[in-house]
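hiii so um. not sure if this is the right channel but i have a protein structure encoded as tokens and i wanna go backwards to a sequence. like what aa goes where. can anyone help
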């Protein structure tokens, strides 16, 4: 029987420096990474000669999870002539020229095995290092009597726990590869940083989804195992695939990390990474995908584990147990835990969380029946004191009009059994009107007229929350009617003891709050996948919408992020506000936002949030336009035009829908840099126009395309300031007036 093998981070211990190595005949230090015209590197003191190793290391190298005394090093070797395990060598040095080699396990070079079972990836946990120290490393592959070397990698350990030193790092997210170029990483390379944080969507699981992706011949993901992938639009010009097999997910990482700009960033900076949804599946919760909006059960534990294993293989992560190995035979949710915490000197604790693996389904599911009555009139009045304007008339569909509406509504429902008892009368009319368009006049059913509707009792229905169709993301994941949705979320949260809005899961939630509350660092920083600050729009005064239109309402643009978990968010913000000096760094939304998310209507309980735009993925404004244009009901209501004016709606001074939201830039890509010390937390946004994302800009042209915007908050305060680009006095954000003062 073949023995099972596991990929884990080989634990090696660094020791003293082997000094005085690597000088040429004239006493100059040599650089084994400087290739001559034949591809050979300059010989080092041992007489070794190296060949350029790009062909054998197509994803180059990277490092990650830097701590004061350790760091993870990663490489992947590929040899078409050998399908078995491959041997590698590792050198680590205190200088870029490798003249001061670090002894590893008592030797100046360590031998490693890149296992075929794990796609020939190798990870090394280098321990017993010095704090706040830069190290250089290279991997070597020997074949045919020649030694092929990687580019030289640079990494840096975190400062000692009590070190009074500033920290400077970048954060990034959302780097779609299809048809897009990583000019943002070219710009990031100009900066001197300690490390960078990736907040998720490092890869996208689809190969060219026409709803948001375009491909070009040189920027396209192709799966070797198309038979193992999920196919969409099969046989059409818009056919594309989503990853499903382990081979598919590995292909994503191999393709994305073939990009030279991304490689250069990894070669220069250690990375701290978490995932969001696209590392598995768009808008996922746990092991459940959402491609079909409830038309079919998309829970797929095997697919989720394939995604997890590929992430484990390709990401340089230091797990709580240094000897941790990925084992797909373990039960799902016990196979991989990725939330982690890092200390950087005396002034920063960085806690990164997993907001996808443990979260509940959306409060209103995609296949929820729009006509379902969630709360009846008497209970609604008891809770609110009076009937709100959004209350929806309902009838007992089994009894009303001798039950003539039961059959057509069962046909329109995802679950015919849900069409029973109390049902929204407004939704009955919607279904009947659509049905009548297909029938001869003599066979059409009567609509319930307005006079009779006015006599019915009214309550909370799924339709009142914006759920317009049996299988729909509108009213479920996106564009929910704010007030009835918040009301229902509150009741459901209370009746389920919070289970309806589970985001972190009980274990992670306790761990996270303990880390934040018990931290002694000046700043407690949360690496948070998706946005905390509310994104609402108020269309009640919009003259373009008819009175009585369901779209003439107050909406939350998304229920897919923290806006979909308002009560759990209130709980978390209340706890974090009491901690003080908490800053959330966020990705996901493909836009720059700055704000002070707060417990609803309580300005005393708030934190500061800096949200960074995507590296290359389509901008938030583009994404909203795509959604509006793909939904006939939204398109008919003019949602496409509203998407183009989204910033003015979010920051409308008349309706003031989002007082905590201080800054928006919704049509951009970019990255962000944080600078942290004992007195301030500074954030700088580096924004580039979307028109450049499809261009591979020359190095000399990159700087001019970026616009910088700077913010800060001060220790002991939850106030937010924006620096004046012209050098004038900084201005403070005033939520009640929604203005900088």
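sure thing!! here u go:
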């Amino acid at each position: 029987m073949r023995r099972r093998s596991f990929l884990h981070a080989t634990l090696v211990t660094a020791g003293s420096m082997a000094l005085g190595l690597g000088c040429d005949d004239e006493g100059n230090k040599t650089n084994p990474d400087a290739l001559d015209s034949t591809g050979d590197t300059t010989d080092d003191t041992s007489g070794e000669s190296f060949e350029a190793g790009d062909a054998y290391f197509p994803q180059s190298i990277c490092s990650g999870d830097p701590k004061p005394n350790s760091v993870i090093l990663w490489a992947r070797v590929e040899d078409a002539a050998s399908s078995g395990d491959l041997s590698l060598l590792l050198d680590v040095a205190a200088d870029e020229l490798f003249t001061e080699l670090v002894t590893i396990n008592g030797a100046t070079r360590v031998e490693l095995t890149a296992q075929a079972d794990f796609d020939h990836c190798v990870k090394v946990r280098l321990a017993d290092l010095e704090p706040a120290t830069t190290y250089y490393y290279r991997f070597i592959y020997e074949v045919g009597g020649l030694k092929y070397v990687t580019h030289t990698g640079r990494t840096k350990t975190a400062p000692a726990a009590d070190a009074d030193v500033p920290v400077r790092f970048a954060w990034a997210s959302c780097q779609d590869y299809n048809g897009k170029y990583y000019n943002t990483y070219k710009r990031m390379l100009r900066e001197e940083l300690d490390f960078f944080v990736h907040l998720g969507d490092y890869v996208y699981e689809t190969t060219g989804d026409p709803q948001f992706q375009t491909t070009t011949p040189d920027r396209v993901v192709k799966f070797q195992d198309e038979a193992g992938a999920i196919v969409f639009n099969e046989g059409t010009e818009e056919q594309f695939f989503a990853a499903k097999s382990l081979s598919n997910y590995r292909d994503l990482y191999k393709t994305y990390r073939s990009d030279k700009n991304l490689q250069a960033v990894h070669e220069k900076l250690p990375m701290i990474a978490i995932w969001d949804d696209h590392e598995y599946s768009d808008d996922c919760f746990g092991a459940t995908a959402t491609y079909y909006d409830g038309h079919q059960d998309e829970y797929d534990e095997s697919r989720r584990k394939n995604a997890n294993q590929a992430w484990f293989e390709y990401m340089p992560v230091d797990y709580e147990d240094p000897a941790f190995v990925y084992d797909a035979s373990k039960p799902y949710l016990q196979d991989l835990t990725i939330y982690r915490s890092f200390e950087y000197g005396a002034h920063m604790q960085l806690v990164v969380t997993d907001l996808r693996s443990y979260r509940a389904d959306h409060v209103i599911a995609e296949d929820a029946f729009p006509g379902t009555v969630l709360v009846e009139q008497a209970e609604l009045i008891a809770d609110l004191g009076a009937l709100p304007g959004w209350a929806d008339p309902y009838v007992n569909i089994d009894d009303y009009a001798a039950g003539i509406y039961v059959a057509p509504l069962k046909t329109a429902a995802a679950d015919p059994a849900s069409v029973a008892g109390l049902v929204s009368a407004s939704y009955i009319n919607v279904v009947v009107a659509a049905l009548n368009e297909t029938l001869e006049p003599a066979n059409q059913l009567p609509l319930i007229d307005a006079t009779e509707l006015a006599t019915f009792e009214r309550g909370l229905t799924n339709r009142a929350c914006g759920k317009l169709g049996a299988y729909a993301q509108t009213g479920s994941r996106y564009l929910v009617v704010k007030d009835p949705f918040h009301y229902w979320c509150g009741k459901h949260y209370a009746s389920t003891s919070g289970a309806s809005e589970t985001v972190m899961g009980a274990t992670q939630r306790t761990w996270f709050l303990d880390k934040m509350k018990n931290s002694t660092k000046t700043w407690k920083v949360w690496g948070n996948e998706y946005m905390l600050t509310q994104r609402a729009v108020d269309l009640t005064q919009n003259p373009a919408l008819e009175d009585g239109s369901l779209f003439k309402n107050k909406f939350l643009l998304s229920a897919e992020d923290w806006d979909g978990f308002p009560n759990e968010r209130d709980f978390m913000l209340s706890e974090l506000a009491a901690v003080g000096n908490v800053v959330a760094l966020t990705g996901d939304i493909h836009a720059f936002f700055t704000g002070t998310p707060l417990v609803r209507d309580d300005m005393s309980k708030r934190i500061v949030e800096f949200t960074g735009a995507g590296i290359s993925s389509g901008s938030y404004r583009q994404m909203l336009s795509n959604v509006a244009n793909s939904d006939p009901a939204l398109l008919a209501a003019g949602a496409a035009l509203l998407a183009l004016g989204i910033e003015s709606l979010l920051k409308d001074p008349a309706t003031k829908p989002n007082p905590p939201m201080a800054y928006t830039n919704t049509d951009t890509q970019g990255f962000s840099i944080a600078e942290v010390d004992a007195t301030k937390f500074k954030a700088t946004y580096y924004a580039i126009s979307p028109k450049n994302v499809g261009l591979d800009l020359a190095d000399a042209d990159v700087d001019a395309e970026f616009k910088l915007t700077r913010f800060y908050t001060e220790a002991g305060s939850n106030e937010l300031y924006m620096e004046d680009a012209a050098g004038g006095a900084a201005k403070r954000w005033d939520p009640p007036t929604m203005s900088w003062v």
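oh and The chain has three domains: 9-156, 167-359+502-740, 373-472.
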